[in-house]
Amino acid sequence: MFTGIVEELGEIAAVETLDDACRFRLRGPVVTEGARHGDSIAVNGVCLTVVDHDGDEFTADVMAETLNRSSLGALTVGSRVNLERPTAVGGRLGGHIVQGHVDGTGEIIERTPSENWEIVKISLPADLSRYVVEKGSITVDGISLTVVDAGPDYFTVSLIPTTLALTTLGTKQPGDPVNLEVDVIAKYVERMLGDRVVGEGAAR
Question: If DSSP states are collapsed to H, E and C, what string results for 140-163?
Answer without folding.
Answer: ECCEEEEEEEECCCEEEEEECHHH
